[in-house]
Design a protein that fits this description.
It is built from 3 helices and 12 strands, in the order αβββαββββββαβββ. The chain is α+β, with helices and mostly antiparallel strands. The protein has a domain of 144 residues: Umud Fragment, subunit A (Ribbon). It is elongated and about 75 Å long.
Length: 210
Protein backbone atom coordinates (compact mmCIF):
# COMPACT_ATOMS: atom_id res chain seq x y z
CA UNK A 1 0.00 0.00 0.00
CA UNK A 2 1.62 3.25 -1.13
CA UNK A 3 1.87 6.15 1.33
CA UNK A 4 -0.64 8.94 1.02
CA UNK A 5 0.62 12.34 -0.12
CA UNK A 6 0.69 14.99 2.56
CA UNK A 7 -2.61 16.60 3.22
CA UNK A 8 -3.00 20.24 2.27
CA UNK A 9 -4.01 20.81 5.85
CA UNK A 10 -0.72 19.50 7.26
CA UNK A 11 1.15 22.16 9.30
CA UNK A 12 4.06 23.88 7.57
CA UNK A 13 7.51 23.51 9.11
CA UNK A 14 8.43 26.41 11.35
CA UNK A 15 10.48 29.24 9.72
CA UNK A 16 14.12 28.90 10.55
CA UNK A 17 15.64 31.70 12.68
CA UNK A 18 18.96 33.18 11.59
CA UNK A 19 21.81 31.23 13.09
CA UNK A 20 25.42 32.13 13.71
CA UNK A 21 26.13 32.31 9.98
CA UNK A 22 23.35 34.80 9.34
CA UNK A 23 24.31 37.92 7.36
CA UNK A 24 22.18 40.18 9.56
CA UNK A 25 24.37 43.08 10.82
CA UNK A 26 22.88 44.10 14.11
CA UNK A 27 25.11 47.20 14.38
CA UNK A 28 23.71 48.60 11.16
CA UNK A 29 20.11 47.91 11.98
CA UNK A 30 18.34 51.27 12.20
CA UNK A 31 17.00 52.29 15.55
CA UNK A 32 13.53 53.61 15.83
CA UNK A 33 13.42 57.42 15.97
CA UNK A 34 12.34 57.44 19.59
CA UNK A 35 14.87 54.90 20.87
CA UNK A 36 17.55 55.90 23.43
CA UNK A 37 20.33 54.98 20.96
CA UNK A 38 18.98 57.34 18.31
CA UNK A 39 18.69 60.12 20.89
CA UNK A 40 22.28 59.70 22.03
CA UNK A 41 23.58 59.74 18.46
CA UNK A 42 21.65 62.92 17.70
CA UNK A 43 23.01 64.59 20.85
CA UNK A 44 26.57 63.59 19.97
CA UNK A 45 26.21 65.04 16.48
CA UNK A 46 24.92 68.33 17.88
CA UNK A 47 27.76 68.44 20.42
CA UNK A 48 30.38 67.73 17.75
CA UNK A 49 29.01 70.48 15.50
CA UNK A 50 28.93 72.94 18.42
CA UNK A 51 32.56 72.13 19.32
CA UNK A 52 33.72 72.63 15.73
CA UNK A 53 31.91 75.98 15.51
CA UNK A 54 33.37 77.10 18.85
CA UNK A 55 36.88 76.14 17.71
CA UNK A 56 36.54 77.99 14.41
CA UNK A 57 35.18 81.08 16.18
CA UNK A 58 38.00 81.07 18.75
CA UNK A 59 40.80 80.54 16.24
CA UNK A 60 39.59 82.81 13.44
CA UNK A 61 36.95 85.24 14.67
CA UNK A 62 36.92 86.08 18.39
CA UNK A 63 38.01 84.81 21.77
CA UNK A 64 37.43 85.71 25.42
CA UNK A 65 40.26 87.20 27.49
CA UNK A 66 40.75 87.87 31.19
CA UNK A 67 42.54 90.97 32.56
CA UNK A 68 45.16 89.84 35.13
CA UNK A 69 46.93 93.16 35.89
CA UNK A 70 46.26 96.86 36.47
CA UNK A 71 48.34 98.16 33.53
CA UNK A 72 45.20 99.37 31.72
CA UNK A 73 43.54 101.06 34.71
CA UNK A 74 41.15 102.84 34.75
CA UNK A 75 39.82 101.62 31.37
CA UNK A 76 40.22 97.93 32.15
CA UNK A 77 40.42 96.51 35.65
CA UNK A 78 41.68 93.25 37.12
CA UNK A 79 39.07 90.55 36.61
CA UNK A 80 37.41 92.16 33.58
CA UNK A 81 36.51 89.69 30.85
CA UNK A 82 36.65 90.84 27.25
CA UNK A 83 35.78 89.65 23.79
CA UNK A 84 38.72 90.07 21.42
CA UNK A 85 37.99 90.59 17.72
CA UNK A 86 40.52 88.57 15.68
CA UNK A 87 39.00 89.23 12.27
CA UNK A 88 38.89 92.96 11.55
CA UNK A 89 42.67 93.42 11.26
CA UNK A 90 42.66 90.98 8.37
CA UNK A 91 40.81 93.62 6.32
CA UNK A 92 41.93 96.94 7.82
CA UNK A 93 45.02 98.24 9.61
CA UNK A 94 45.07 98.97 13.34
CA UNK A 95 44.57 102.60 14.32
CA UNK A 96 45.64 104.94 17.07
CA UNK A 97 43.35 104.55 20.08
CA UNK A 98 42.61 100.86 19.51
CA UNK A 99 43.10 98.61 22.54
CA UNK A 100 44.97 95.57 21.25
CA UNK A 101 45.94 92.14 22.51
CA UNK A 102 49.31 90.85 21.32
CA UNK A 103 52.05 88.29 21.81
CA UNK A 104 55.17 89.59 23.59
CA UNK A 105 57.90 91.00 21.33
CA UNK A 106 61.30 89.36 20.99
CA UNK A 107 62.81 91.65 23.64
CA UNK A 108 60.47 90.25 26.30
CA UNK A 109 60.80 86.65 25.14
CA UNK A 110 64.56 87.10 25.46
CA UNK A 111 64.04 88.16 29.08
CA UNK A 112 62.17 84.95 29.84
CA UNK A 113 58.55 85.85 29.11
CA UNK A 114 56.41 83.04 27.72
CA UNK A 115 55.93 83.55 23.98
CA UNK A 116 52.35 82.33 24.32
CA UNK A 117 51.50 84.95 26.92
CA UNK A 118 49.19 87.78 25.86
CA UNK A 119 49.54 91.50 26.62
CA UNK A 120 46.95 94.24 26.25
CA UNK A 121 47.73 97.94 25.61
CA UNK A 122 46.49 100.98 23.70
CA UNK A 123 47.95 102.07 20.36
CA UNK A 124 49.30 105.62 20.58
CA UNK A 125 51.58 105.59 17.54
CA UNK A 126 51.24 104.24 14.00
CA UNK A 127 54.03 103.63 11.46
CA UNK A 128 55.82 106.90 10.67
CA UNK A 129 54.64 108.70 13.82
CA UNK A 130 57.20 110.38 16.07
CA UNK A 131 56.48 110.27 19.80
CA UNK A 132 58.07 111.66 22.92
CA UNK A 133 57.06 112.03 26.54
CA UNK A 134 57.97 115.36 28.10
CA UNK A 135 56.70 116.99 31.31
CA UNK A 136 54.08 114.31 31.85
CA UNK A 137 52.60 114.61 28.37
CA UNK A 138 52.77 112.46 25.25
CA UNK A 139 53.67 114.47 22.16
CA UNK A 140 52.64 112.96 18.83
CA UNK A 141 54.34 114.49 15.80
CA UNK A 142 55.03 117.59 17.86
CA UNK A 143 51.48 117.99 19.17
CA UNK A 144 50.27 117.18 22.70
CA UNK A 145 48.10 114.07 22.60
CA UNK A 146 44.78 114.53 24.42
CA UNK A 147 44.35 111.51 26.70
CA UNK A 148 41.29 111.57 28.93
CA UNK A 149 41.54 107.82 29.53
CA UNK A 150 44.85 107.60 31.45
CA UNK A 151 45.06 107.04 35.20
CA UNK A 152 47.78 109.65 35.78
CA UNK A 153 50.36 111.58 33.72
CA UNK A 154 53.51 109.60 32.94
CA UNK A 155 56.39 110.27 35.31
CA UNK A 156 59.14 109.44 32.85
CA UNK A 157 60.88 110.97 29.84
CA UNK A 158 60.92 109.29 26.44
CA UNK A 159 62.18 109.92 22.95
CA UNK A 160 61.73 111.23 20.50
CA UNK A 161 61.04 107.84 18.86
CA UNK A 162 59.87 107.31 15.28
CA UNK A 163 57.72 104.22 14.74
CA UNK A 164 59.21 102.10 11.93
CA UNK A 165 57.14 100.52 9.14
CA UNK A 166 55.21 97.45 10.21
CA UNK A 167 55.27 98.47 13.89
CA UNK A 168 53.06 100.19 16.47
CA UNK A 169 53.77 102.14 19.63
CA UNK A 170 51.62 100.87 22.50
CA UNK A 171 51.20 102.14 26.05
CA UNK A 172 49.12 101.09 29.03
CA UNK A 173 46.52 103.56 30.30
CA UNK A 174 48.15 103.19 33.71
CA UNK A 175 51.26 104.88 32.35
CA UNK A 176 53.39 104.54 35.49
CA UNK A 177 52.74 100.83 36.02
CA UNK A 178 52.82 99.31 32.55
CA UNK A 179 55.36 97.12 30.73
CA UNK A 180 54.94 98.63 27.26
CA UNK A 181 56.66 100.35 24.34
CA UNK A 182 58.25 103.00 26.57
CA UNK A 183 60.26 100.09 28.05
CA UNK A 184 60.93 97.75 25.10
CA UNK A 185 60.21 99.82 21.99
CA UNK A 186 57.79 99.56 19.06
CA UNK A 187 55.67 96.43 18.66
CA UNK A 188 55.73 94.42 15.40
CA UNK A 189 52.25 94.34 13.91
CA UNK A 190 52.77 90.63 13.24
CA UNK A 191 52.47 90.07 17.01
CA UNK A 192 48.87 91.30 17.12
CA UNK A 193 46.23 88.78 18.20
CA UNK A 194 43.26 91.12 17.87
CA UNK A 195 41.38 94.15 19.11
CA UNK A 196 39.55 94.28 22.44
CA UNK A 197 35.98 95.14 21.51
CA UNK A 198 33.57 94.25 24.27
CA UNK A 199 33.53 93.71 28.03
CA UNK A 200 31.02 91.07 29.08
CA UNK A 201 32.00 90.87 32.77
CA UNK A 202 31.36 92.34 35.28
CA UNK A 203 27.80 93.16 34.33
CA UNK A 204 27.91 96.66 35.84
CA UNK A 205 30.58 97.59 33.23
CA UNK A 206 29.04 95.58 30.39
CA UNK A 207 29.62 97.16 26.99
CA UNK A 208 32.17 98.28 24.42
CA UNK A 209 35.70 99.21 25.41
CA UNK A 210 37.88 101.83 23.82
Amino acid sequence: MSPKPPSSSSPLPPEAEPGPSSTLDRDSAPSSPGSPAAGWRANLRVLAIALVIALVVRVLIAEPRYIPSNSMDPTLQIGDRLLVDKLSYRWQPPHRGDIVVFKPPAQLVGLGYNGGQAFIKRIVGEPGDTLEVVDGQVRLNGQILAESYILAPPQYHLGPVTVPPGHLFVLGDNRNDSNDSHVWGPLPQANLIGRARFRFWPLDRFGQVG
